[in-house]
Design brief:
Blueprint (H helix, E strand, L loop, with lengths): L3 H13 L21 E5 L2 E4 L4 E4 L14 H11 L10 H13 L5 E5 L2 H16 L3 E5 L16 H5 L10 H4 L2 E4 L4 H10 L3 E6 L2 E2 L5 E2 L2 H14 L2 E5 L12 H5 L5 E4 L10 E5 L1 H4 L18 H16 L3 H21 L6 E5 L2 E5 L8 H5 L3 H13 L2 E2 L8 E2 L6 H19 L2
Parallel strand pairs: 3-15, 5-6, 5-7, 7-10, 10-11
Antiparallel strand pairs: 1-2, 2-3, 4-12, 8-9, 11-12, 13-14, 14-16
Bound molecules: pyridoxal-5'-phosphate (PLP).
């Protein structure tokens, strides 16, 4: 595969943009090699500057549930653009998307739109602190909640990839209210509550996607809910990634555990920059201008982004079954790859949740971040490079989740499995 144009583009970008990228994980650092520079996407495919095509299992890190350039989303964006790019004033599009989002989630009476997942979570934390009048928060090692200061403590995703969990530039004073617990380990959460009576909230990715795919056990989430109730703390489900990917009605609909606040992003913007956070009215009414908790954004509720999100969620509402169809396909994919790997003596742990899939080169089941770090990173890098060469674009870090879109066909899945077998064979034969 010729990637000369990508290499040249990367060299130039590195002289102008730190690391040549606008978000660290894109730099391929953990797998080596050169990031592929993309020129366009169509359906399930990405095309790069050298003219290579790839089946895309990254989907812009989650938003593109319906693949690239989905017709109805594209048409909605073009129509919205014709009316103006931004007004900084209320539009009907915000109310319409709010109605849709609220309709999907039992726990949400009111929602506010922002421009990224980071903003959504940062605002949700402030709201939880304002609502409870407490300062401390509990987060889980390996969960990633965006790059705001208080949450950049033992975070997953790119932060984990670089072994640089607490970033320089984040004052210790800013993170002293962040308590850490271990994912799927309720005793570690009990210890936090024993250590502090000032816990405003516990924030969790109820299906973690930033240490690879690691779902929380249902019992663990129930216990978490109970602990929060007993201690007067709010429970925040960060569904920026899992929202509308793992299920149409949130993880609450799968587990029966109702969060106090939900944060959303990715799919709700249909590929445009959108985040959101929602809760019952009692909590949301604390927000400015109704209440004292300040939160704002020049481009929040941007009409073009709202139109894209509305089109995406409308499609999903009309065909909610799509999540289970995608889950079947994702299961076929990871099961097929696991079987292919085992033929060459390689053990893979695999899992799926709706249109999310994950795999670890690990002898043992992965239940938390510590388990995830025991995976074979070198093997992952070889697998990633081999699959890219075969025309399959997987996330370039073992601490990420894979995504399948409606544009990926059964045939593409079978081709991916066949390619993985070839790659495993090459790896085994050195
Ligand atoms: N929360 C979770 C669970 C995420 O996966 C991410 C990003 O991947 C974020 C928050 C931050 O979202 P964004 O990158 O849009 O700021």
């Amino acid at each position: 595969m010729n990637t000369q144009a990508s290499q040249k583009a990367f060299e130039e970008a590195q002289t102008l943009i730190p690391g040549g990228v606008d978000s660290p994980v894109r730099a391929f650092k953990s797998v080596g090699g050169t990031p592929i520079f993309i020129t366009e996407g169509k359906g399930a495919y990405l095309k790069d500057v050298d003219g290579n095509e790839y089946v895309d299992y990254v989907q812009s890190w989650g938003p593109l549930l319906f693949g690239h350039r989905n017709e109805s989303i594209e048409a909605a964006v073009i129509e919205a653009v014709k009316h103006g790019l931004s007004f900084g004033a209320p539009t009907l599009a915000e109310t319409e998307l709010a109605k849709l989002v609220i309709g999907f989630f039992d726990s949400i009476d009111k929602v506010r739109f922002v421009s990224s997942g980071t903003e959504a979570v940062m605002s949700a934390i402030r709201l939880a602190r304002g609502f409870t009048g407490r300062d401390d928060i509990v987060k889980f090692t390996g969960c990633y909640h965006g790059h705001s200061d208080a949450l950049l403590v033992e975070a997953g995703s790119g932060a984990a990839t670089f072994g640089n969990p607490s970033s320089p530039g984040v004052p210790a004073d800013f993170t002293k209210h962040t308590l850490l617990a271990q994912y799927n380990n309720i005793e570690s959460v009990k210890k936090c509550f024993a250590d502090s009576k000032e816990i405003a909230c516990v924030i969790i990715e109820p299906i973690a996607g930033n240490m690879g795919l690691v779902p929380a056990d249902k019992d663990f989430l129930h216990e978490l809910r109970k602990l929060c109730d007993e201690n007067g703390a709010l429970l925040i489900f960060d569904e920026v990634m899992s929202g509308f990917r793992a299920s149409v009605n949130g993880v609450e609909s799968i587990t029966g555990v109702k969060p106090d606040i939900v944060t959303l992003g990715k799919v709700i913007g249909g590929g445009m920059p959108v985040g959101a956070f929602g809760a019952r009215s009692e909590i949301m009414n604390m927000l400015s201008p109704d209440g004292p908790v300040y939160q704002a954004g020049t481009l929040s509720g941007n009409p073009v982004a709202m139109a894209a999100g509305y089109a995406a969620l409308t499609k999903l509402k009309q065909n909610a079954r799509v999540i289970s169809v995608l889950n079947d396909r994702a299961s076929r994919l990871v099961n097929g790859m696991r079987e292919a790997a085992s033929k060459y003596g390689i053990t893979m742990q695999t899992d799926t949740r709706g249109s999310m899939f994950g795999f670890f080169f690990n002898e043992r089941e992965v239940k938390n971040f510590q388990d995830a770090t025991r995976s074979d990173a070198e093997l992952f890098a070889k697998f990633h490079a081999g699959m890219l060469n075969e025309g399959f674009y997987f996330a370039c870090s073992l601490y990420e989740t894979g995504f399948i879109s409606t544009a990926v066909t059964d045939e593409m899945v079978e081709n991916t499995i066949a390619a993985s077998e070839k790659v495993f064979k090459e790896i085994k034969n050195g």
